[in-house]
């Protein structure tokens, strides 16, 4: 329930439904909190009035213009109420209302309550009914301009893109967001989503994406989002983490230059772990290098997870010696 919504209603010279002559035929139904409620919510008089009458029309299943207006008042007071929005959709279908008008109404509502799941769901249903997603990219873009990490806006955008094949130009849009904020994890996630649902991670695409990501890491070496994206890319590399020479060289050069980003060190540890597991290259060297990196992370660069890195150092030390399974079992216990 929103206090601002209560104020909005009051400012409109609110007339209680119980005092409206055209609602005299409806029996309001009070909220039932049980015989001995532990804590009674202090609803405003307007809220109680609206929802008593909403329960009244819900019981009789009235679908009329006045019922539609009542759902608007109820949604204004509590936009997170699923039942209100579902019943509003039932009325819209029964009255065969203009869906474009409803789309405009929910556009304005989302602007006021952009982090509310129910309002986005209502828009999604309307777009499905219209079978037209032509406005969705521009609309979500306008929301993201004020909150570029809005989860609901990104979720809706991805749904619309996948449903109506609206991928054209999206990588350029994502790139513009990353130029504004290179740490925008939502934009990195969107980049992965677009590539995965269009070209896929072919050898050429993978190479280009790795180049793009390494360039971004060079700009902000402590940017966890870019390092995570790089890891995601390497999952599509047939050779694995430790065999992509472009990435290996980049990481080694970065380390040798004195950089001690926790994300860099963590990736190097995983590369060493992979080499040991696969038995490729100099296993002894990889083991010692991995152990040393874990100690660096535990003592200096990722101390909040020191126990994890101590565990990893112990695991790497035992790996390949025949005691790694016992070590893992002992740690689990």
Q: Could you explain how this protein is built, in words?
A:
The protein has 333 residues and is mainly α. Among the domains are: 97 residues, Serine Threonine Protein Phosphatase 5, Tetratricopeptide repeat, CATH 1.25.40; 78 residues, no CATH class. The protein contains 17 helices and no strands.
- The overall pLDDT, averaged over residues, is 91
Q: If you compute it from the alpha carbons, what radius of gyration comes out, rounded to the nearest whole angstrom?
A: 28 Å
Distance between the termini: 47 Å
Strand count: 0
Query: Would you identify the CATH architecture of the domain at 1-97?
Result: Alpha Horseshoe
Tell the overall outline. Answer: elongated
Beta content comes to: under 5%
Largest sheet: none
Order of helices and strands: HHHHHHHHHHHHHHHHH
Look at the structure and give the CATH class of the domain at 1-97.
Mainly Alpha
Number of helical stretches of at least 4 residues: 17
Helix content: 55-70%
| Secondary structural class | mainly alpha
CATH topology of the domain at 1-97: Serine Threonine Protein Phosphatase 5, Tetratricopeptide repeat
Low-confidence stretches: 323-333
